Amino acid sequence: MALSDLRSAIPEYAKDLRLNLGSVIGNSELPAQRLWGTVLACAIAARSARVLRELEPEAKANLSEEAYTAAKAAAAVMAMNNVFYRTRHLISDPEYGNLRAGLRMNVIGNPGIEKADFEFFSIAVSAVNGCGQCLDSHEAVLRKAGEDRDTIQEAFKIASVIQAVATVIDAEEALAG
Questions:
Q1: What are the disulphide bonds in this sequence (predicted)?
Q2: pTM, whole model, 2 decimals?
Q3: Residues 73-87: pLDDT tens digits?
Q4: Which of 20, 46, 52, 71 could form an S-S bond across to 40 if both were Cys, CB 3.0 to 4.6 Å?
Q5: Is 131 noted as a catalytic residue in this protein?
Q6: Is the pLDDT of residue 48 over 70?
Q7: Rounded to an integer, what is the distance from CA 28 to the centroid of its chain?
Q8: Active-site residue, selected from the candidate residues 42, 63, 131, 162
Q9: Which of 10, 51, 125, 134 is the catalytic position?
Q10: Residue 25 reports pLDDT greater than 90
């Protein structure tokens, strides 16, 4: 099992991450599509080849073809949107907020799966990428759809653990030469 391989690759100094990875994935109460779509989208966003290689097969096995594609699409469109909207927010000239974005993001309106699941993937990727404006936007859509804060926070937990695992795994591989 790839998840167990990934957990065993986490060094002892980061054992909290090993425990948290098992907890956010193995003990999750999220429906399988929401859980594994979020895991896949975050693994892509974390930009770690090893983490993605280890988590993708299990994600693919637990997702429909549509959900698998939607998770990858969420990672893709959020990679663009998070940079764009974070930059617009960070620039001190507020007039940029009045300009038309002019970027295609049709998949947000028609993701091929339940909209709330796609929003869940998107908020998790936005957490990995650190875009406050996107976090606020996706959180508002999820709350309007009836999601509670505890459920939405699961996206942040998955995102933070996968990002931390990716950081440690990549650092250890770089140090090993």
A1: 131-134
A2: 0.96
A3: 999 999 999 999 999
A4: 71
A5: yes
A6: yes
A7: 15
A8: 131
A9: 134
A10: yes
